[in-house]
Design a protein that fits this description.
Elements (H helix, E strand, L loop, with lengths): L10 H17 L5 H5 L8 H13 L3 E2 L8 E2 L1 H10 L8 H11 L5 H16 L2 E5 L7 E8 L4 E8 L4 E7 L6 H15 L4 H13 L7 H20 L3 E4 L13 H12 L1 H12 L5 E4 L11 E9 L5 E10 L4 H18 L2
Antiparallel strand pairs: 1-2, 3-7, 3-10, 4-5, 5-6, 8-9, 9-10
Amino acid sequence: MSVTPITELNSRARDIFRVVVESYLGTGAPVGSRTISKLAGLNLSPASIRNVMQDLEELGLLAAPHTSAGRMPTESGLRLFVDGMMQTAEPSAEDRRAIEARLSDGGPIEEALSAATLALSGLSACAGIVMVPKREPVMRQFGFVPLSRNQALAVLVGEDGSVENRVVDLPDNVTPSALNEAANYMSARLSGLTLGEARLRLRAELDADRAAINGAARELVERGIAIWSSDMENRPVLIVRGQANLIDETASADLERVRQLLDELEGKQEISRLLESALAGTATKIFIGSENKLFSLSGSSVIAAPYRGGDGRVLGVVGVIGPTRLNYARVIPMVDFTAQTLSRLMR
């Protein structure tokens, strides 16, 4: 998309353009010249304003939904505003507290990621999204902690320091020594492998009867690997919360756009591919409308920022998706702060 440089607009055009965009983002309605002329500080007649708005329309920055209506920014206009004119600041203290409160409860990482989407959805009135790239941790250590006669907590510690805890059903009459035997075997023979690699090695050794483990301990090893592998395979790649926020008071005027957007959210694989482009970034990325093929019909915007683990590697992407009429100045810092907070939790 070719966007007119901000330097090509004179001060009068920039002032009027800013008023149109900020008014549209606040109300969702086109802005007329008479409304603009009443604003203090411009000292321009409606006729002069109409002439400037016509020039902005010819540059592709404004458009009129119909002949007698006022003007609203095009996607090119929104891009110019976001990149060249908008001023962002830190999230408000209230927004920061709301995000930190959602993410401070502890628990499995999946719960933190889900909480992040709920926080962003609630604060932005959009749908919150988090992408978790599928990856298998390299395993370092294993353990089994008895919970009852029939269950134990299977503990997996990854090379990156991550800890995965899962409850596993015990075979009949398992002794504490069998739990230790299973954990020692796994740590000695499977450390340094991914779950997929461990599954293959375990199967090969059991089939060849080379595994130095028997009976209940052998069954424990198989159950532990199976439950971890199943969880990893079924772990959501994309978490979406707050789709209902997309059906607001303006939705009735554009039901087809909303339906298309909800359909796009159902196709999580396509959105995941879009978000993957934010994985390599160091800052928040903004996708506006048809800049991306996925949203060419629904006219939606995505704001996404990467979050990182303790070693600095990007682990995933967090953000929001909604109509192009977003409060970009508020939502962009909010998404960035959520990504930073998630990064601190991952350390």
